[in-house]
Amino acid sequence: MELNEKLLQQVITPRPIESHKGTYGKVVLIGGNEQFGGAIIMSALAAVHSGAGLTTVVTDPNNHVAVHSHLPEAMVGDWTNKETWHSAFEDADVLLIGPGLGTNQQSLALLQFTLTNQTKKQWIVIDGSALTLLATHSLALPYPEQTVLTPHQMEWQRVSGLNLDEQTQEHNQQKQQELGAFLVLKSHQTTIYGPKGNYPNPAGSPAMATGGMGDTLAGMIAGFLAQFPKNEKTISAAVYLHSFIGDQLAKEQYVVLPTQISKEIPKWMHYFSQK
Amino acid sequence: MELNEKLLQQVITPRPIESHKGTYGKVVLIGGNEQFGGAIIMSALAAVHSGAGLTTVVTDPNNHVAVHSHLPEAMVGDWTNKETWHSAFEDADVLLIGPGLGTNQQSLALLQFTLTNQTKKQWIVIDGSALTLLATHSLALPYPEQTVLTPHQMEWQRVSGLNLDEQTQEHNQQKQQELGAFLVLKSHQTTIYGPKGNYPNPAGSPAMATGGMGDTLAGMIAGFLAQFPKNEKTISAAVYLHSFIGDQLAKEQYVVLPTQISKEIPKWMHYFSQK
Amino acid sequence: MELNEKLLQQVITPRPIESHKGTYGKVVLIGGNEQFGGAIIMSALAAVHSGAGLTTVVTDPNNHVAVHSHLPEAMVGDWTNKETWHSAFEDADVLLIGPGLGTNQQSLALLQFTLTNQTKKQWIVIDGSALTLLATHSLALPYPEQTVLTPHQMEWQRVSGLNLDEQTQEHNQQKQQELGAFLVLKSHQTTIYGPKGNYPNPAGSPAMATGGMGDTLAGMIAGFLAQFPKNEKTISAAVYLHSFIGDQLAKEQYVVLPTQISKEIPKWMHYFSQK
Amino acid sequence: MELNEKLLQQVITPRPIESHKGTYGKVVLIGGNEQFGGAIIMSALAAVHSGAGLTTVVTDPNNHVAVHSHLPEAMVGDWTNKETWHSAFEDADVLLIGPGLGTNQQSLALLQFTLTNQTKKQWIVIDGSALTLLATHSLALPYPEQTVLTPHQMEWQRVSGLNLDEQTQEHNQQKQQELGAFLVLKSHQTTIYGPKGNYPNPAGSPAMATGGMGDTLAGMIAGFLAQFPKNEKTISAAVYLHSFIGDQLAKEQYVVLPTQISKEIPKWMHYFSQK
């Protein structure tokens, strides 16, 4: 498999006429503490614009108004309320935990709850501080084959134990095999590691080197998994499209904002679905 | 009657010169609990962009700031305050209840109040969780001939008692006759059922299969009823325009966001008013 | 004087090179209770886009976040805090009171404070519920010749004692003479009454008949008075430009939203300043 | 050195391929009390759009939602919480303090903390009310050669002791030498004073004479210092680009809003990086 426009055409297929919002999956996003509320908002913008059927953001109640200011299309859940956790999670197709989650007791409790309650039909994307918590507390993944880890290099060091200079393709692949989860290792050249091999992302540019870009990517992966076959190809298509759109915007911008990427998703998904 | 562009031309007539905001009706929207505040915001965006003269959103106070961030054009009312209910309702021409309403005691009390206080001059649109409450609590419609129900198929099952596979055109029409209310039954092919027959909506696409699309439709129906003759034709025009705009946007987008539909309404209403 | 494009060219002159934000005046807007916060936001959007040098919104603290979500350019003041009143008012060039003010004790206290503390160098625009309070409590205008009243016909009935069918040009002019304030009487054909005569507004259309249009107009008048000579011509130019922009937008829209008008102001002011 | 397009080409160089958000620096913005929250939002918009890698806004908690409504890309910190101060500051490359800071005890404590904790590797931009506090309390600059002061003429009077009519080029330069900090003295013709001389800004127009323009400039200087060499040239490039963009917008607008400038930054930085 190569990450290119052809892959996008294969994954982003025209939608069936007889379908409804349930057809395109339910995404639950967990993150956004008092300081980092923007992170989960960026993930939600990405998931909704990617075409997830229903999107719920479980976050600190201080962030609810800002979520709705950006995205009335999303539902919100109060992450201090355990009843919310149960009701939000039970119907979910894809869970994304981590953007702006933080690393305190509350964050840890949410991650543990999520991993404990993940069901066989649910996929999970683990990003940001949830990766740090995963490493620090040596938490086990209940369904590694339905799990996507999206660390940047420092987070990968924590999860894998590999120092930055040990993070060779070979070592990373080996660690991926041990963990069993899909790995999206973010750097100036993001690479996807799966059970069958690894796939470097040829797209992307330094114009995308700004805070929140990873939160947007995680939201896109969640949105893609919600509606397309849950596999390596779909994950890879989300990664490539994220960078592809960044590259389009970087033709005219010195820096590309994460929220700008999200707004362009529907147009480019249409483009590749028609080719 | 057929749902087509001609219908839009008939309903969306040029506005009389000697008119003021009162001429175009007062809409009161009731919904939006702590979790689902976005739903009533989307309805309000649709009502205002459809041309309702005055729009008030009676919702959980946690949603007031988000309503105003989207729409300073709307007024807000605190739904925990019974005085608000009275003052907001007494001048209303059209009531819309349900988007994001929830199904707890507060939601039920609001629905009961609304149905009890509806007057002969007011129309009501009942959507979302208000339909579930209507079914669960066997509430009566005071003025069924001035009532529009906008269920999706699962909600219609609750209201009508018809299982999904029993929801044939014939059965639906029969139930509509029993209830006496107008029925907008949402599916991949929405159909309107009225006393004189039923009318399938030929427009719409799977790009519109995303959360909030129904809230937007309900807001458009309310906005249309506020300013145009209160009848089947007007309801049908709102349904068709909603899908028509979705189809225009779907020419360039893989997924169409509900809030994008609302922003396009003034342009397309102008287009059809001039033909 | 006639309200036309020539008037706009006369009033909207090119800005002097040696100037700073203080040159273009300080506007203080007072209004926006818990229900009607959107009204004062719309006035503020209009004042800032009209070119007021500094704009402060004294409003219910519940509205502060929504003000800043629309307009970080504006400062906010808590209207429950009397110290705010003093500090906000002392430097103001133009005061606008009324949009969304409401009519309770707090509203009355604010209006009384404003009228009591108005200085010889300050102009005041009185709109919306402040007009109702003015009439109900028979409040006196300290500087009528520096006062602009912007009632719609029902509010004018309260202020003038003239019933709707008595509001002839002659009667209105007579009342204006008695009151001494400038009168902008809003209807489908708004007319300005001043000491030297009255001037009907030939522009405007029913596409503008939607809630908040008057709040926007009031904000424009305040913004114009802040930076241009404080007289009848400047008031009239604001009234005409408001309708002119509405007419431009109505060429493509069935309904024109007040906030859309505000966004167009800088472009059209530039246009007329260059002619 | 002259402030012109050539300078922009020299400073705004193409980004290295092998880079990440850390490469482009961490900016911490401190300001925004209950009344002036918009000021720090405008600074943050400028810093993020200028390409700062990571941006944190330490502000009154009342402003957090409005920050995120504009800019989910930014992180927020509660300025009433001293732990926040420490954690936010320790990794910062550039500190900006002052926009909307106010002058009460809390404001003073924040400024004192900032000056006390500034490290040898950090630059600081001091703007708005922080300049007033600096003057009133005769605070010392720990690293004047890594400090940028951005007063308007009244603030400069407070800091330098020079009355408006004493603010000649010669006197200003002399005071700059005494203080040792870079000086961006804002007026209708902003001038930069550094150890090697002074540089008038030929760009800018009275369309930019509106509240918040200085907050935007301060944010741009911080964003530029975060990613480009920390020197006089970089400061000057930010000043010139700010006015240059204002001039572009003023070709079509009578008044230019500060937030409009920020949105144009990525496009123009791209333009000059490619020349």
Automatic annotation (TrEMBL), chains A, B, C, D:
<comment type="subunit">
    <text>Homotetramer.</text>
</comment>
<feature type="domain" description="YjeF C-terminal">
    <location>
        <begin position="4"/>
        <end position="272"/>
    </location>
</feature>
<comment type="similarity">
    <text>Belongs to the NnrD/CARKD family.</text>
</comment>
<dbReference type="Pfam" id="PF01256">
    <property type="entry name" value="Carb_kinase"/>
</dbReference>
<comment type="function">
    <text>Catalyzes the dehydration of the S-form of NAD(P)HX at the expense of ADP, which is converted to AMP. Together with NAD(P)HX epimerase, which catalyzes the epimerization of the S- and R-forms, the enzyme allows the repair of both epimers of NAD(P)HX, a damaged form of NAD(P)H that is a result of enzymatic or heat-dependent hydration.</text>
</comment>
<dbReference type="InterPro" id="IPR000631">
    <property type="entry name" value="CARKD"/>
</dbReference>
<feature type="binding site">
    <location>
        <position position="152"/>
    </location>
    <ligand>
        <name>(6S)-NADPHX</name>
    </ligand>
</feature>
<keyword id="KW-0547">Nucleotide-binding</keyword>
<keyword id="KW-0521">NADP</keyword>
<feature type="binding site">
    <location>
        <position position="100"/>
    </location>
    <ligand>
        <name>(6S)-NADPHX</name>
    </ligand>
</feature>
<dbReference type="InterPro" id="IPR017953">
    <property type="entry name" value="Carbohydrate_kinase_pred_CS"/>
</dbReference>
<dbReference type="InterPro" id="IPR029056">
    <property type="entry name" value="Ribokinase-like"/>
</dbReference>
<feature type="binding site">
    <location>
        <position position="215"/>
    </location>
    <ligand>
        <name>(6S)-NADPHX</name>
    </ligand>
</feature>
<keyword id="KW-0520">NAD</keyword>
<keyword id="KW-0067">ATP-binding</keyword>
<feature type="binding site">
    <location>
        <position position="39"/>
    </location>
    <ligand>
        <name>(6S)-NADPHX</name>
    </ligand>
</feature>
<feature type="binding site">
    <location>
        <position position="214"/>
    </location>
    <ligand>
        <name>AMP</name>
    </ligand>
</feature>
<protein>
    <recommendedName>
        <fullName>ADP-dependent (S)-NAD(P)H-hydrate dehydratase</fullName>
        <ecNumber>4.2.1.136</ecNumber>
    </recommendedName>
</protein>
<feature type="binding site">
    <location>
        <begin position="186"/>
        <end position="190"/>
    </location>
    <ligand>
        <name>AMP</name>
    </ligand>
</feature>
<keyword id="KW-0456">Lyase</keyword>
